[in-house]
Specification:
By secondary structure, the chain is mainly alpha-helical. The protein contains eleven helices and two strands. It has two domains: 32-125; 130-292, no CATH class.
Length: 292
């Protein structure tokens, strides 16, 4: 059915005294529940197909990255990276259109968060907490170009005709993103050996909130890039822990994957700053180790 079709959609059960023939004469499209189920299943299958293609793109990118670094010892050029990133962004846009179509036919069932997470699961190229392969995804590797995209966004803000107070607020948010990362690092590398279980629970909750703040902070940077017409920092926005549903392993895995991606992103984007921060933590808290 065309995305531009403006007719309303009803099921037979939605009707009262009108006949299906009368509704069709009025320009309405009246579908049986079986027809709606068929449309929904078709969109759900298309989502799965697109998601598999997204996963394949990520795997091919990772292989290309390894080959490039092995052959000449240098990272992929920005031009080549952007081509990969644009390909991923296009596939994600197709996926989102199918999800919206699915919502139209099955607003009360197939568009549930758990259902969509399950359908899009193949897009997860790698899974598992702190899996080093996550760093080789397109989304994480976009961190290599954080400084360039940040500078472009700040320049666009300066040249914008928006009110100065609004522009200053947006600049302040951009410049403060590192502080969100540093706060998460503090929690990440604090000792979690607590004698009182309640202290451990409080620590875990605070650490999760700090991680979520980084996730939402990166999402905000993407929103600002859209607002001022510059390139996004990443091709999509990410889930924080509040999106997961305890009864749904799919949503738990998806939220974990997104949080891992964001952590790898900032590990790449702020490599120098993180080394400095860890040196401070070592001095002040006695923590020793390396990040990645």
């Amino acid at each position: 059915m065309s995305e531009t079709n403006k007719h309303s959609i009803e099921t037979i059960s939605d009707k009262s005294t009108r006949s299906r023939k009368d509704d069709q004469a009025l320009g309405k499209i009246v579908l049986t529940q079986t027809e709606i189920d068929e449309f929904a299943e078709r969109h759900l299958q298309q989502i799965k197909n697109i998601s598999k293609g997204i996963r394949d793109t990520e795997l091919q990118f990772a292989e290309r990255k390894r080959k490039k670094e092995k052959e000449d010892g240098s990272p992929m050029s920005e031009k080549e990276f952007i081509a990969w990133e644009d390909d991923l962004a296009f596939s994600l846009s197709l996926q989102q259109k199918e999800i919206e179509s699915l919502r139209k036919y099955r607003p009360g069932f197939a568009y549930k968060t758990a259902e969509v997470a399950k359908a899009t699961d193949p897009m997860i190229a790698y899974s598992g907490i702190n899996n080093p392969e996550v760093a080789n995804t397109i989304e994480a590797q976009a961190g290599r170009f954080y400084d360039e995209r940040r500078s472009a966004l700040l320049k666009a803000i300066t040249n914008s005709d928006r009110p100065e107070e609004e522009k200053q607020e947006d600049r302040h948010y951009i410049l403060g993103f590192w502080q969100l990362v540093a706060a998460h690092l503090d929690y990440k590398h604090q000792s979690n050996a607590f004698s009182d279980p309640s202290e451990g629970w409080s620590y875990d909750r605070s650490r999760t909130k700090a991680h979520d703040a980084v996730v939402n902070g990166l999402n905000k940077l993407n929103d600002l890039a859209e607002k001022y017409g510059t390139r996004r920092f990443t091709v999509r926005n990410f889930w924080d822990s509040t999106k997961r549903i305890k009864s749904s392993p799919e949503t738990i895995d998806r939220a974990r994957y997104d949080r891992d991606i964001v952590e790898e992103y900032y590990a790449i984007a702020f490599k120098y700053d993180i080394n400095q921060e860890l040196a401070r933590l070592e001095r002040e808290q006695g923590w020793t180790g390396i990040y990645r």
